[in-house]
Amino acid sequence: MDAPHHLRLAWLEQAPGPVLAVATEYESDYRVNEHTHTRGQLLHAQRGIVLVTTVKGRWMVPPGHALWIPPGVTHAVDMIGSVSMQSVYVSPDAVEGLPQELRVFALTQLMRSLIMEAVSLPQDEQPLGRSKLVLDLLLVEIPNLEQRPLALPFPSEPRLARLCRKFIEKPDPHATIDSWAEALAMSRRSFTRNFARQTGLSFSTWRQQACLFSALPRLTSGEPVISVALDLGYDSVPAFTTMFKRMLGQPPRAYLGMARNSLN
What we know:
Number of strands: 9
Radius of gyration: 19 Å
Largest sheet: 9 strands, antiparallel
Number of helices: 10
Order of helices and strands: HEEEEEEEHHEEHHHHHHH
Structural class: alpha+beta
Strand content: 15-25%
Shape: globular
Helix content: 40-55%
């Protein structure tokens, strides 16, 4: 990890107070190598898309969302496009109900406003009055955020992990359990059990989430829905829209409109 992030970590470990909030700008393809901190981190991608990797998988953070990273979790961060990042670092005992696992949340308008206020507060003085109220309310709101299925767990078994990585490089919504089981010289039943045990997801759910990972950066950059759907191997836009709505609760255009509005 480069020197600025070493300095950031040192500051995080020494700074007083239950909440620290900072804003950072990153160039496209910038990578923050593996690191950890004793505070939990609510990572908000205000602009651009962030991909966080741990030994347990990958988590995508598109605009309008935030990723909760619990204290002590080793992770690396990759930027997809130019990224404006806002991070809220929280002491483990600051508030009850903080998640114990990585989770992607949709941000409410209230939470977006609170984060904007928090990163603008002075970092070298004890928060009082209005500043303290902003940080206190921010803490209360974290456990109430709505979780979104933007995690992509990775298996630990090397051969299965290689198949998963190949799929991410070239997603195929028509990939079947039988073809993957055959590639691993396993029965369908054994493969199904093994995949669920290692990822915590069924193969079909994992496949849909991997396709979503591939689609979101392209859609948020302005590519037409039809181009993304056909490139990913979907037979039609309605088929892609059905998957998208199942995973994120809204069709692509409505979801992307909400994400764009979150930046205004």
